[in-house]
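example protein:
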Amino acid sequence: MAGFTIVWLGQLISILASSMTGFGMTLWMYKQTGSATAMAGMQVAFITPFLLLSPIAGVLVDRHNRKLMMMVSDLVAVLSTTGILILYATGHLQFWHMYIASIFNGLGNTFQWPAYSAAISTMLPKEQYGRANGLMSLLDSGPGVLAPLLAGILLAIPMTDPFDSFAMIMLIDVLTFFIAIGALLLVYVPQPEKTVEGQKESGSIWRESLYGFKYIFQRPGLLGLQMIFFMGNLFSGMGFTLLAPMVLARTSQNSLIFGSVQTAGAVGGIIGGVIMSAWGGFKHKVHGVLLGWFMFGGFFAMLGLGQGLAVWIPFMVLMMLVGPLMNSSNQSIWQSKVAPDIQGRVFSTRRLIAWFTQPIAPLIAGVLADYVMEPAMRSNSGLSQVFGSLFGTGPGAGMGLLLFFAGLLAAVVGLGGYFIRPVRNVENDLPDHDQLARVEAAAQG
């Protein structure tokens, strides 16, 4: 656990600095273009490499030294930031350069997540998976609280061009990448032992890239868990798409209130991560997954009912607090069941399936909100007469109603998992990979 903590601290420092850079890039991009579409293009550029290359990245993680793969992913990210820094400091930065940087950052992330997830399985005993994954969840939530604050303070400091406060933030980001790499150099990351199944499925890179799908679809319990997250992400993705415009519409574009809601969510995520890192979750991790989704969806639905901070703040904290419970519990199940030498391929496929909803959910939510729910809740329709007393009839009411039902459906997904036997009994039906290894060793000798 000590070695893992060193690597985790290096990543925490680096991700905090990268989040500050991302905050500064967002402000710079909007100042240059004044276009939300142009800013959304950065997200598209970031996610595209993952959707295209994730299966191949999993193969490379399994084939090569995982410590090296983690370092390479950090180096790819530092090269993109260094390029933006040089262009900015010399006065040559154009907005389209940000798209190229986003592609490189997405490429690094495509390799980083499966490499780090698989490394946990070789660095720690399975009893520590829950705590370790709780700490990993803090990497998602912690920077969300501190990065905007620290970046805002630095950006407010008057400095002379061309090396102004934005350039200083990027320089700090570059330096912290080397802290993360240095932490990796200090720690021994064991390579996984080759299993019979891993050796049997070796072959061309294209065959191995499809192996993750084959592995998951042959195991009903793991496939069911993955479908829980696919459907849950679809409905929660719709909710997150609507959250910002709903809050802004209900508060006459009050950015301070919206910022307070976002900060509350980040604080909730930190609290949940700290709890998970100390507790480790339920003994039967599947309860953390299913109860987590049930509570997450229920709290999300309450955000749609709210019309002010008195409701939004507490339920945003509660919703994000249970996020580490369901994510860490799910990760622990997969790390226990999947042999470490094939986790790169399987985990990359998992994330690809789960993230496939990202381009779908915003489209569904946006069309329904703009063309169906908002007009219906502002007119004297049957929908407004039924739900108007709860959600109101002004701007944002239709989005609140849609967010409410999206949250309820996410809760139903979690509750429904208990009625699917392979999901409910996944931990009992599937042996842990270390048990299989002992059986294989006994059979050989």
Summary: The chain has a mean pLDDT of 83.
